[in-house]
Amino acid sequence: MKLNLYATPGACSLSCHIVLEWIGAPYKITYISGSERKESAFRKINPSGAVPVLEADDWVLTQNIAILNFLADSFPDTKLHGDSSAKSRAEVNRALAFASSDLHPAFKPLFGTTAYLDDETSIEKTKTNARTQLRHLFEIVDASLAGKDWITGARSIADPLLYAIARWTKNKGVDVNISDLSNLNRFMTNMDSDAGVQKAMQNEGLEKFHRPDAE
Hints:
Layout: E1 3-7, H1 14-23, E2 28-31, H2 40-43, E3 53-56, E4 59-62, H3 64-74, H4 86-106, H5 120-144, H6 158-166, H7 169-172, H8 182-192, H9 195-204
Parallel strand pairs: 1-2
Antiparallel strand pairs: 1-3, 3-4
């Protein structure tokens, strides 16, 4: 199966990039900038103009959760659905849904989606509210990681998505202090040290979440 992932460096598509590294099958990455995603050439591939997009032979699949589940199902030996029991798969999909439906949308004001308000005071209020909401959501994540190396207890497709989204806190002023969200920060450090994560990060020109020279 020929796999080609359309991705934007540092976007949530990083999660699929990491999973492709974990799987170990040959793949190609086609990088698409934010401006290129608005152009008609890419809109023909994905009308919503979003990444990731996965081409598997001549089949095109969109939506992060769908792609991650497809990769896990296509390469079952990697056990990226945990033990593949109904309960394990449900836990993985619960973690994916939380990252995709709760964490990801909460960042939107910080990415400029409230600029249409055309009032700086109102826009800043939406950003302040977003940071407060995100802090609460990452507290939930931190509690879920207590005593665990992976968000569901075993390595799964949910971990790269959580990692990719949590990385955004660095540049968007979201407080995920090491001292009081230690479980989350331990998870991020462990992901930083993973060989597949490092390869994907290197390919996308990204830095680790925790860099010794920045401590």
